[in-house]
From TrEMBL:
Superkingdom per UniProt: Bacteria
Alphabetized UniProt keyword annotations: Coiled coil, DNA-binding, Sigma factor, Transcription, Transcription regulation
Cross-referenced InterPro entries: RNA_pol_sigma-70-like, RNA_pol_sigma-70_dom, RNA_pol_sigma70_ECF_CS, RNA_pol_sigma70_r2, RNA_pol_sigma70_r4_t2, RNA_pol_sigma_r2, RNA_pol_sigma_r3/r4-like, WH-like_DNA-bd_sf
Coiled coil: 111-141
Domain called RNA polymerase sigma-70 region: residue spans: 23-89
Family (UniProt): Belongs to the sigma-70 factor family. ECF subfamily.
Descriptive protein name: RNA polymerase sigma factor
Any one GO BP annotation for this protein: DNA-templated transcription initiation
Domain spans labelled RNA polymerase sigma factor 70 region 4 type: 119-169
CDD domains noted in UniProt: Sigma70_r4 (cd06171)
Amino acid sequence: MKHTDEELIEQAQAGNPHAFGLLVRRHQAWVLRFVRRLPGTPADAPDIAQETFLKAWQAIARWRPEARFRTWLLQIARNTTRDEWRRQLRQPSEPFEVEQHVDPSPSPVRRLELDRRLRQLERLLERLPAEQREVLLLREQEGLSYAELSNLLGIPPGTVKSRLARARAGVLEHYRLEGGEHLHD
């Protein structure tokens, strides 16, 4: 029987670590993806994702049903990432490699094309201001609503919409300046 997040949270709040483990398994992939996509995320994104879940476990008693678990978890991940940024600013930094995401199923030629397009999209996103990039990724990749983005980022819904519109326009403008081809397949 598959339990809802709310049922698992209730069990975790009662001290059931197995229930929380199920929540971790259910949400760990997208938390890691979210952390990796935040502007300036360090190479140790898996450690930050793990720290996010540790903090969530420590704070699970404070979670309230009126907040979506996913939004609550994103806020913890965002804050944990910011804490790591601050910590790294106080220490000398080392260069890190951007992980390449290649779908293993297409042909080698198709993989090269997909990889090229992914790098192009990443370049376009990197040109956006951090707050625009963040809202665009949260909306498009994580599927957050305007209200969820507003709560998560602590900004009015109108600001969410304007940042999103500016981000989309910025990506298209940079794309055109690069002599862009079709991104869709």
